Amino acid sequence: MSKNLKITKIIGISPGTRYVGFAIFYGSELRDWGVKNIEGRWSKEKQKRIMAFISDLIGQHNPNVLVVKTLHPSRTSPNLNRLVAKIKESAERKRLKLYQYSIKELESFFYPDARINKRALTEKVAEKYSVLSHELKREKTIINPYYIRMFESVALGSLCLYQLDRHTKTKTSSHHKKHAKK
Q1: Following DSSP, what letter does each residue of 22-49 receive, concatenated?
Q2: Residue 50: which of 18, 97, 76 has the closest Cα?
Q3: How many CB atoms are located within 10 Å of the residue 23 CB?
Q4: DSSP codes, 139-171
Q5: Where are the domains of the chain?
Q6: Could you tell me the CA-to-CA distances from 44 to 17, 27, 50, 58, 134 in Å, in that order?
Q7: In what order do the strands lie in the sheet with 19-26?
Q8: At what angle do helices 133-141 and 148-181 cross, to 10 degrees?
Q9: What is the pTM of this model?
């Protein structure tokens, strides 16, 4: 591998007004993951704390790509919509490639031939990334899903990685075909 190739670093974000899931990928390696609990009633100050957390992740990991969950129109709020708009603005300001995927797209990626629920998605993600098995066990024992946003973030990063890799291979293949004709 050439030293000039830059590793793709991806931060996956599953936004929420109380919990923010995140996943950090360095190439295909899942480096960090978790859920940040932001306490308190919604306010501009709370939005600033969430944005500061995301900015800290970006500053710490220096990603090339930010991938954010697309909000379902019936499961969102004006506050959450504003938060996502701020995340997008931040990505643009920091010149990050921004991708968004819906839960349906994640489910289709992990289970192409079946309709599934979020719990089945978490199991598939933990199957692909065995380091998450501890969080999966904990998630199964609690009544209110806590880690679901983290699993969504990992799934977002995984799908983005797959699509970027596929795009790179397609470009490389086209490049080789073009030069072979000369």
Answers
A1: EEEEETTEEEEEEEEE--SS--HHHHHH
A2: 18
A3: 29
A4: HHH-SS-STHHHHHHHHHHHHHHHHHHHHHHHH
A5: 9-172
A6: 11, 34, 10, 21, 35
A7: 29-37, 19-26, 9-14, 65-69, 97-101
A8: 140
A9: 0.87
Q: Please determine, for residue 4, whether its predicted confidence score (pLDDT) is greater than 90.
A: no
| β-bridge partners, 11 | 24, 66
Of residues 44, 49, 50, 46, the one with CA closest to residue 21: 50
Superfamily, domain 9-172: Ribonuclease H-like superfamily/Ribonuclease H (3.30.420.10)
pLDDT tens digit sequence for 12-62:
999 999 999 999 999 999 999 999 999 999 999 999 999 999 999 999 999
What would the two tokens of residue 35 be?
Answer: 């859920």
Nearest residue to 54 via CA among 17, 90, 100, 99:
90
Sequence-distant (6+) residues with CB within 8 A of 88 are 68, 98
What CA–CA distance (Å, rounded) separates 27 from 14? 19
Task: Provide the pLDDT for residue 116.
Answer: 84
Taking only the tens place, the pLDDT of each residue in 23-33 is 999 999 999 99
Q: Which amino acid is at 102?
A: S
Distance (Å, whole) CA 165 – CA 174: 14
Q: In sequence order, what are the beta bridge partners of 22?
A: 13, 34
